[in-house]
Design brief:
The protein has 464 residues and is of the alpha+beta class. The protein contains 11 helices and 16 strands. It starts with 19 loop residues before the first strand and ends in a 20-residue tail after the last helix. The model has no long low-confidence stretch (mean pLDDT 95). The structure holds adenosine-5'-triphosphate and manganese (II) ion.
Length: 464
């Protein structure tokens, strides 16, 4: 077995009949009779299986008993042209090694199809299905493409902290990090918990966004991006929210909102095109099995210009639409997914970048417009998803930033380091956050965000 090195099944199409080959993987199906047995083997390198032919004269029925769906085997043999349809080459086996059996009475992934809900309950085994193989290969390819896109443009990958003591990010409810004894925490005289006795000497949380630290990087290195996990303790049980998700946050010195929008549009198109160019076999599988318009939708996004319009114009369109929404719209309210999707799917039929939102519904750091009412925010809205990117030009004026911090009754002392960037060498700058799993929802055509991350975390759910 060891005289020949293992070949990934995805590479077989580059080989010739007659070549000797060693493959290792998991049995998807076994069928046949006394004279010949056919095994479909998958090793995770591709959605395609390789067919193994085991001749009855070399392999007794008894020796193949343990080779059942889910079992792991190694096969040494010769590549031959396949008379059957579905594959050009198959392996005529000479030697077989059984690594691990999988009891047919209990192994849950038998040949029949399974619901996505059931597969979520077996998160430890679902990567072995065709669907999740495709999704996780695409997820890998997108992560690689993100680094490639920014590296080719001269952006630096900046690692922002996962544990943070700044509670001013304001992007969402936070998970606390503490080593205090929860049954008997130290208390101050007034009765409040004394965080000066906690591990960091103050209260700490898991980050909800790397942006504030990302800005510090951009105001020194020019153009940076972060790509890491973020955590939100909101109780949002929706198909678009996770408690732990990955975010990509580029931040650029000397960019105004226009350049920020240009970058966001170029970035998403690059990623979608990368998937079409590099993951087409997996995309075809998802297209055929789940969503017959998937590939068409991906091609449309690459080839279309995103619509850009102001929040105020967007609200007018929604009010004049005559559409009944679950949440009523008026100027000043935050847009719900149903509103975002109406604009994208019904009205414009293409992605939309909405800008200049009311300052009350956006974060304190966004650049204030001269109308006194709106800020230079930009959200990118996508078909099927709604908001996929949230971003803005940042307020670079110390005075204006300070007055906004006061208006919102935030504590300037916890933000001293952030405010100092506006005191020393401040410049116009901008950035945005792309939710990695929202991107993957779009690229894979999945409809539940729990199916595009290997081990989803959501309220009441942290199994595996
Ligand atoms: P939403 O309004 O959809 O809850 P948000 O406005 O809270 O999102 P931002 O704080 O702007 O989101 O975060 C930037 C991006 O991160 C969003 O555009 C989205 O792609 C993604 N994102 C935000 N919250 C979540 C979540 N809970 N799970 C997965 N992705 C998320
Ligand atoms: Mn947002």
């Amino acid at each position: 077995m060891e005289s020949c090195s293992r070949v990934k099944i995805s590479k077989i199409k580059e080989m010739e009949p007659g070549e000797k080959i060693l493959v290792k993987g998991w049995v998807r199906t076994k069928r046949g009779n006394k004279n010949v047995t056919f095994v479909a083997l998958n090793d995770g390198s591709s959605v395609s299986n390789v067919q193994i032919v085991l001749d009855g004269s070399k392999f007794s029925e008894e020796s193949l008993k343990g080779v059942t769906t889910g079992a792991s085997i190694g096969v040494f043999g010769v590549l031959v042209e396949s008379p059957g349809k579905g594959q050009a080459l198959e392996i005529s086996a000479d030697k077989l090694e059984l690594y691990g059996t999988a009891d047919p009475n209990s192994y849950p992934l038998q040949k029949k199809g399974h619901t996505m809900e059931f597969l979520r309950e077996i998160g430890h085994l679902r990567p072995r299905t065709n669907t999740f193989g495709c999704i996780f290969r695409i997820r890998h390819a997108m992560a690689y493409a993100i680094h490639k896109f920014f590296n080719d443009k001269g952006f630096y990958y900046l690692h922002t902290p996962i544990i943070t003591a700044s509670d001013a990010e304001g992007a969402g409810a936070m998970f606390q990090v503490t080593t205090l004894d929860l049954s008997n925490p130290p208390r101050k005289e007034c009765g409040a918990i004394d965080y000066s006795k906690d591990f960091f000497g103050k209260s700490a949380n898991l980050t909800v966004s790397g942006q504030l630290e990302g800005e510090l990087g951009a105001l020194a290195l020019g153009e940076i991006y972060t790509f890491g996990p973020t955590f939100r303790a909101e109780n949002s049980n929706t198909p678009r929210h996770l408690s732990e998700f990955w975010m990509i946050e580029p931040e650029m010195a000397f960019y105004e909102i226009k350049e920020n929008m240009d970058l966001a549009e170029e970035f998403i198109k690059y990623l979608v095109k990368y998937a079409l160019d590099n993951c087409i076999e997996d995309l075809r599988f998802l297209n055929d099995m789940f969503d017959k318009e998937l590939i068409q939708r991906l091609e449309d996004v690459v080839n279309t210009q995103f619509v850009r319009l102001s929040y105020t114009e967007g609200i007018e369109i929604l009010i004049n639409s005559g559409q009944k929404f679950e949440f009523p719209v008026s100027w000043g309210t935050d847009l719900q997914s149903e509103h975002e999707r109406y604009l994208v799917e019904k009205h414009f039929k293409k992605p939309v970048i909405l800008t200049d939102y009311p300052k009350e519904i956006k974060a304190f750091y966004m650049k204030q417009n001269s109308d006194g009412k709106t800020v230079r925010a930009m959200d990118v809205l996508f078909p099927k998803i709604g908001e996929i990117i949230g971003g803005s030009q940042r307020e670079e004026s110390l005075e204006k930033l300070q007055s906004r911090v006061e208006e919102l009754h935030m504590d300037p002392s916890s933000l001293w380091w952030y405010l100092e960037t506006r005191k020393y060498g401040t410049v116009p700058h901008a950035g945005f956050g792309l939710g990695f799993e929202r991107l993957l929802l779009f690229v894979t055509g999945m409809t539940n965000i729990r199916d595009v991350i290997p081990f989803p975390r959501s309220p009441k759910n942290a199994e595996f």
